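Same chain as my last thread, 257 residues:
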Amino acid sequence: MGESKDLKVRTYKVGLISRSAALFRVNRIVIYSDDQDRKGTKFISDVLDYMNTPQYLRKQVFPITKELRNVGILPPLRTPHHPTGELHQGDFRQGLTVKRTKKGTLVDIGADRLALCKEKLSVNRVLNFKVEKLAKEILITPDEPDIYWGYDTLATYRNLQDSLKALKPKPDLVVGTSRLGQPITSVFNEVIGDLKGSKHLAILFGGPYSGLHDLNGDARKLADLELNTIPHQGTKTVRTEEAVLATLSVFNLLLDL
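reply #2:
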């Protein structure tokens, strides 16, 4: 985020990363910090979480803060867990547990009234539910959909090496991105082979002014592959949000071959 101190610009840049992650079905975004900038790390995490949260829950989940005052400029994700149409039986929804009653737990799922889950759940938690019945009462049960349902955000407040160690499940293939890496076009078949044998892929990104080679410690030793996913780049630097979009686009293609 070092390219700009303007809060509106910083908010929009994080929004672009969120859009790219959702577009290419990323499961988790890990924010590491090699310069102990806890405030900056939390800002990125908050904006990513805000974008991933369905619109109908944002006011309840996120209090108004200075850091989130520009969220109105963020583009919508339009993912399956951000519904825009009417509620139907069998739909999955994210819901905020609001209140426990004798019958169970009242949940805000973005309908015209609170839904009822007959289980006693902890309050003020966002969980996934399936709509079982639409009647005078909306009956729901905790359930997990089998479609892409957004990403999780993990702010470790640690350096890259310690952040990788903290991941569960542990990645079995780690790819570092750098303009100093091997051009992706020269190792296409090797990368495809590695991807086929991998279940948990992690892709590492640096920043425009501090790439992986500039981090404390040798970040290259953390990666199984170090790739340049934008060979022959026409600009001196590649912004992080640009690198994320370009790299995820390439890997989306490779994973589909």
